Each structure stands twice: as C-alpha cells, then as structure tokens.
What does this fold into?
Amino acid sequence: MSEPQSLESLIGWDDLLTEEAQQIRASVREFVQTELVPGITQVWEDGRFPDEKTAAFAALGLFGANLEGYGCAGVSNLAYGMALHELERCDSGYRSFVSVQTSLAMFAIHRFGSEDQKRRWLPEMAAGRVLGCFGLSEPDHGSDPASMATNAVRDGDQWVINGSKLWITNAQVAQLAVIWARERGGRVRGFLVERGTPGFEAGDIPHKLSMRASHTGALYLSDVRVPTSAELPDGVGLRAPLAVLNNARLGVAFGVLGAARDCLERAIQYARDRVQFGVPIARKQLVQKRLVDVAEEVVKASVLTAHYGRRKDRGALTAAQVSLLKRNNCRIALEAAREARAILGASGITTDNHVLRHALNLESTYTYEGTHEIHTLVVGRALTGEAAF
It folds into this structure.
C-alpha cells in the first residue's frame, strides 16, 4: 500500500495562489479547525448561529476583507475567496454569514453609497459592531426581481417604504438592512434601514432543513419612514442590486468547493478505514471510481475558480463567467456530498459524519445567489446572443 496523495496536491494550490492568499488560507483554516469545527454538529442540530463567534470573525479581518479603505483589509479577491473556501469547509452557514456582511451589505454601501454613508457604516461593519443584511428577494419574487412588490413613495424629505423580503441571511441580527424597493415611476432604489425604525421588523423562518447554522429570516416594512439621506445615491435601477449579487457569486463558488473538499476527504478516510470482505473498501474498484469522479471535478473547478479570482482582481471577470462558475461549482459540490454519503453508507446519514449536513446546505447554495436554471440561461445568452428568460 502506497502513501496516498492529498487532494490539495492534486489541485496544486501553491502554484495557483499568491503569497497573500496562502497566508490567509492558513490563518482561516486554523481558526476554522480550532474555533468552529468542534462545535458545528451541536449548533447545526440546535438550529442556531453562534453569535458569540462574531468578534472572532471580525478580528481575523473577514468582514469587508476585499474592500478598500474604511477599516477594511483590502486583500485580493483571490485571497478573500480562499478565506470563504476554508469557512465553508466547516459549514455553508459560516461562509454565508461573512459573504452577506461583506459581499452584499458592505459592498452595496461601498459601491453605491454616499461618502457619509461609507464613513458612518463601513468601519463599524468591518469591526463587527454592526451587522448587515441584504433585502432583495421577496415571497413572490425570487428569480424575477424586476417584479418586486416592495415600494417606496417620496413624502417631502422622507421615503415611505412598504413590503416584505424573504430568505434574508442575518435578518434577525442585522442592525442595518440594505433594502431594495420600487419607487413610483418604476425605478428600483436602494435604502439603508436601521433596526428599530418604526414599522420595520424581522422574523424567523422555522423548520429549516438546510443552512441551520445560519440566521435566515424575513423582513417586514409597514409604512417605514427613512430620510432621503438613507438613499444609496448611486443605487438606482435594477442594475445596482444585480451588480451586488454578481459581486457575491465568486465567493459562493469558492466556498462550495470547501464543502466539496471536506466531503471528499471524509469519504476517502472512511474508505481507507472501513473493512468489508476482509479488505478496506478503498481497495474496491467501484469505490475508487466514485472517489476519482468527484476528485476530478473538484480539481478542475479549483483551477478554474482560482483563474477567475485572478481575473476579478484585474477587473476582467464577466457576468457570464461568474454564472458559469457559480453554476458549475454548486452542482459539483452537491454531487460530491451525495457521492460521499453513498460511500459512507448508513454512517453517512448522521450529523457526526458531516456529509449529509453539507448536502442539505448545498441544496440551498444550488438555489440562492441565482438559481442553477437562471445561471444556465445567462451562459446560454452569452453563447447564442438570444435571451431565453
């Protein structure tokens, strides 16, 4: 029996990553292994996010990591992506927590906010003293945000907002919500709504079978009045929230590969330890084929993801490339979790062995930040020039 190679050696990460990205990957990996992995089974079964860890996330510089200025770390998108990769190796909920804070809420302010808004909110968010959420999806309008029902009416020097948002990560704990609403005349606008504003409430989504170690909720706005200074001055038109979503999808693609990697590594170890018919099942051809099929897809996706991360750092990443990557990585990660569960047999259904927890989480990543089908049509339009939405 020869010494097995690691999945990372097959990928060749060291040739793909900058020194900065390698250092961040190592520091986040240590944090995940010591602070998050030991408790993940319990918090997932309890259906709660460990809010007591928020300060530790901030201390690592994860909030706003790839943003410039305002107390943010300003690291590359490649380095930030590897941080998310390591977080999701533990659980999708942890990566989502950082992604929503950084790539949705903070990025929306950084990209479309006024200088006063940036100075007021971004340093507090980078330090973890203010948590944010991103309110775009609605109960009846997920993949079709152009049909959003949440509306904003100008009343003197205020806006009056009515509507609801659903499937909002961090909704229950966010002190600041980026809310997208349609004004009279049809244009979409972004607003910053603070917790405690009269008429603004957040609620739970009970009975989740996925993303259980995550705050996922609903936002309700009933005659919520905000001053005109709460407008995101450059966040006008549907292009604004779509640009924010497009920004966040690379992080999702990096993250889900972390979950796939964890599933594959656990399946490999199980196959080496599990003896049937007198030998480890790792010696069986059918088991090896399953492992190789998963590893092949993870390796290819890892190389492409690093390449696209570098393209984003150069400002060269296109929307179609983001859609292709998010679509591909979420699909293969979900398949990796399912294959790992099959290799583990009955042991694969327990939370102690983690792979089915990953599979349940990955069912959500397959859908959010643009469904698999919507990304298919984005790439299809890029290839044919014809829109099939």
